Amino acid sequence: MIMESVRLNKYLSMRGICSRREADRRIAAGEITIDGRTAMVGERVTGLERICFSDRLIGEEEKGQETEPVLLVVNKPCGVVCTASDKDRAPNVVEMVGYPSRIYPVGRLDKDSEGLLLMTNQGELANKIMHAGSLHEKEYVVTVDRPLQETFLKKMREGVELKELGETTRPCLVKQEGARRFRIVLTQGLNRQIRRMCQALGFRVVTLKRVRIMNIHLGKLQPGEFRKATKDEWKELVRRVYGKDGVWPEIW
Prior knowledge:
Layout: E1 6-7, H1 8-14, H2 20-28, E2 32-34, E3 37-38, E4 44-45, E5 51-53, E6 56-57, E7 71-76, H3 93-97, E8 104-105, E9 114-120, H4 123-130, E10 138-144, H5 150-158, E11 161-162, E12 167-168, E13 173-176, E14 181-186, H6 193-200, E15 205-213, E16 216-217, E17 226-228, H7 231-242
Parallel strand pairs: 9-15
Antiparallel strand pairs: 1-4, 2-3, 2-5, 5-6, 7-9, 7-17, 8-9, 10-14, 10-15, 11-12, 13-14, 15-16
């Protein structure tokens, strides 16, 4: 039970309901109430309030039991979305996995992309992975609509100005693997970043597949398949996220 007040989005994340970003979206949409009134983005709670998420009372089902840490390695297929509030009602990754306890995606992989997606019930771990300043590596294999050129690869490596976002992408690793295929390692997660980078340079992405997040690899998982992270994967992920001398959460 929380006694000191925390922001509502953090509280929902700590409870394993959803990430802080998703919580803010749900709060703004009026889907969360506190003691019968509609919650506001940015307000604080202690955990003693009656908090409802999509008409479900938070906290009742957790009373008297420990929450087992969960980290799933998922191969998200194209056409599946990472948010339950998708406007076109496309298949949702939470429903696809059908895990018996409440979990949610760590970050996003857009509807038209496939590959590695982590899902967990560990809110603070998820937030640290997604934090924009963390420089955590994410690796992708991309095919485009026409043959690659050295000038394209050079500009992708050095950084591409995305005028619509008012951002220039960070320098990154790019390696050509075929006439129209390349591998790219990013340390930031701008909205549809790779697609925007390619478009800015006159190319269109045909396929985009994420194959690694830090030390977690997609491996031989087929689209729609998932597995639990191994103990060694857990330990190394936590070491990278919290640092060698940091305070590690009690996962095992």
